[in-house]
Amino acid sequence: MVSHATEAARFTDANDVIVVARPADRAEVSLAVGGDVECVEQPDPLGTGHALATAVIAVPPESQHVLVVNGDVPLVRKETVQALAALHERRRATATLLCCSMEAAAAQQIGRLQRGARGKPIGVLEADDTPMPRKGEVEVNVGVYAFEARWLRRALGQLKPRPGGEYYLTDLISRAVADGKRVEAYVTQDKDEALSVNGRQDLARVEAAAQRRLRDAAMAGGATLVDPATVYLDATVQLGQDVTVYPNTSIRGASRVARGASLGPNAQLRDAEVGPDVHVGPAVVEGSILGPRVNVGPFSHIRPGCVLEEDAYVGSHVEIKASRICSGAHVGHFSYIGDAVVGAHANIGAGTVTCNFDGVLKHETEIGEGAFIGSDSLLIAPVKVGAGAVTGAGAVVNRDVPPGERVVGVPARPLGMRSERALVQKEEGISLG
Q1: In this structure, which topology does domain 222-428 adopt according to CATH?
Q2: Is the overall model pTM greater than 0.70, yes or no?
Q3: Known catalytic residue: 88?
Q4: Which residue ranges make up each domain of the chain?
Q5: Which carries the bigger pLDDT value, residue 213 or residue 420?
Q6: Which is the CATH superfamily of the domain at 2-194?
Q7: DSSP string, 85-120
Q8: Collapsed DSSP state (helix, strand, coil) of residue 383
Q9: Residue range 390-401: average pLDDT?
Q10: Catalytic residue among 50, 301, 333, 345
């Protein structure tokens, strides 16, 4: 939520972005908003006016205007905040606030705007100031403001505590009117922008509204959502032209999906870079890169740190972790590939496991170009299987396999009459004449 507020502030080309947080939350908030945002502490929860006074101390003295965005209204659009700031500067206002008309029944806990002669804003009535009408529309205070900085510093010192001991930021509006200053209101037509979060139920309502907005934007940008109500997106997701998203699919984090890709049904992507014409079925892809025309089949899990190059194929029930699957390689089904490089056009048979962990350290497996790994092979890392090499079904490979070699058995040994006879002679101590 706080990231949405800081992004809206950045959109106005603000010179400095400052976030106010409780001491207990400061580290987590700082991590969420990034290193270019200053985070100041409000040790005592004495209301929004006190929070603003805490932040203003950190505002550079030369600043002419201060923009304030409440942290509980994450659906305020960047463009709305920019328009409010432009109105504030154009009208040379001392204070400007964002307002919206909405049904009274939905605004019982929101402060409402008071207008005086000629419709000019004269104050904000909080929910505990006066009973809210039960029917009709009311004009509510959204929680975004612009103030003239010099006046604001002085006015904050003149705020009076409410009966509960808190200082209300909204009292600055009536203070500006009393000082004979110009006060303006910018009206947004998007009622979702006024939705605030004060509990889990509010959070669910805001998330539902955010998802409608994100889905509409995705479809307007050229993506097809087969059943929009069951597709879940983050604001940081990018969907290209002609992407098709099937039902019950979640795309989160910094995921980018290129033109022509298809996802789902029942796919989950997080921080994934998906190339053109990729297909991801009911699978999970996290923190990985999928090149052009990659296929990821049902119930597979691509864990963080993977690169699947163009035309790589992953079938069903496969887990891949921190590995590179090179161009045209196949990992058919029921396999685990971890800390490995699978060469171009190699084939990984069903049930193959790269045994990458010795109980203390992780080790790497290298599978060469065009290699054929037979079903149920166990590759005991660190190990290399050369280009064009073959492992037989059930082989336990604990030594490097040269290019073009064929190995079978437990442990795996080269396949061939001479090598088989020599092996028997060595192990049984008999002469074969």
Answers
A1: UDP N-Acetylglucosamine Acyltransferase; domain 1 (2.160.10)
A2: yes
A3: no
A4: 2-194, 222-428
A5: 213
A6: Spore Coat Polysaccharide Biosynthesis Protein SpsA; Chain A (3.90.550.10)
A7: HHHHHHTT-SEEEEEEEEEGGG-TTS-EEEE-GGG-
A8: strand
A9: 97
A10: 333
